[in-house]
Specification:
Shape: globular
Distance between the termini: 51 Å
Mean pLDDT: 94
Number of domains: 2
CATH superfamily of the largest domain: Periplasmic binding protein-like II
Helix content: 40-55%
Strand content: 15-25%
CATH architecture of the largest domain: 3-Layer(aba) Sandwich
Number of helices: 16
């Protein structure tokens, strides 16, 4: 393993914490000049980020974990879902650094703390983070619908449900059940950060039903009973695109151009869209293509989107909406 590989490895191990440049030299037994030369080259290539923290000390991060924007690059976070063909096509256009998350909370937290510049995660999750931390700005809804409930028994007999916490899945599941006249206080909800773990335990019969998004929903539909959320609660905004406030203030033109690019890809070639989602997420291309039927893809933001959140108990004033979005 050469010096560059060793340096990238130790910097990568520190993730969000980063590592002092002097510590790299000391830990790896390399000269300060060698470390400096390698880091300068990696910085020019956009693979690492350095920032002066005290006197002459420099802290180093891999680009994907930098707590500040990277010159000339855009870091985009996406959830492991088939909801983002147009997002990924827009990312490909600008050579973005794409990071895939399993958890909506972890993605939105990374966006709020500046470890990614743009992120797509549940609209309700982004709204709650924007209200509490004031560190993200919502720009558009990227898709509507695309999820539902898969059951091992008749819905009225289900007593335990798997879902993801503080997400569109949890909010829609409870709204869905209430609309059907079920008492959610008498039901049990099991929360998961990983969709794969949730599906695995559902198949192992550890709970009766699961609220899941695409393409997991499509992959389960042929084996179990299912209902799409939109059949009961109507069309709903699922994920939205938001930016870190610092990135937005420094690179407003980049955000604006990305949103415009996103709009141009809402009408996309299905095979190309399925291919890029499959490559990035690791899903079967055929399943991804079938899952597209569940969505209405978008790149717009309207007052109606925020009004829909009232069904979840989030009622926002026009002044508040203006503070947390670019509407």
């Amino acid at each position: 393993m050469n010096a560059e590989e060793r340096i990238l490895r130790i910097v990568g191990e520190r993730r969000e914490e980063g590592i002092l440049q002097s510590e790299i030299a000391k830990t790896l037994g390399l000269s300060k000049s060698t470390v400096s030369e390698v880091l300068q080259r990696l910085e020019r290539e956009g693979r690492i980020v350095r920032e002066r923290v005290a006197g002459k000390s420099m802290r180093v991060w891999l680009a994907e974990f930098s707590p500040k924007p990277i010159e000339g690059r855009v870091r985009v976070g996406v959830l492991r879902a088939s909801e983002y063909p147009h997002v990924l096509l827009a990312c490909d256009e600008v050579d973005a650094i794409v990071k895939v998350f399993d958890s909506a909370i972890e993605l939105t937290k990374a966006l709020s703390f500046g470890y990614i510049d743009l992120g797509v995660s549940p609209f309700v999750t982004q709204t709650m983070f924007a209200l509490t931390l004031r560190s993200i700005r919502i720009h558009c809804i990227v898709a509507y619908n695309g999820s539902g409930v898969v059951m091992k028994k008749e819905l009225g007999r289900c007593r335990s449900f798997g879902t993801s916490e503080l997400s569109a899945m949890e909010s829609n599941l409870k709204l869905f059940l209430e609309r059907l006249g079920l008492d959610i206080n008498r039901l049990t909800f099991k929360y998961f950060s990983s969709p794969e773990s949730m599906v695995k335990l559902f198949k192992a019969c550890e709970f009766d039903a699961v609220a899941i998004w695409e393409p997991y929903f499509t992959s389960l539909k042929g084996k179990y009973d299912w209902i799409e959320f939109r059949e009961v609660i109507g069309d709903f905004p699922c994920c939205s695109l938001a930016s870190n406030v610092r990135f937005y203030e420094e690179r407003r033109d980049v955000v604006r151009n990305f949103v415009e690019g996103l709009r141009s890809y809402t009408e996309f070639d299905e095979r190309r869209g399925a291919r890029i989602v499959s490559e990035v997420m690791g899903f079967e291309e055929e399943t991804v293509a079938r899952s597209f039927e569940s969505y209405r893809f978008s790149a717009e933001l309207k007052q109606e989107s925020f009004r829909f959140l009232e069904r979840y108990g989030l009622k926002l004033t026009e002044e508040t909406i203006k503070k947390i979005s670019t509407l």
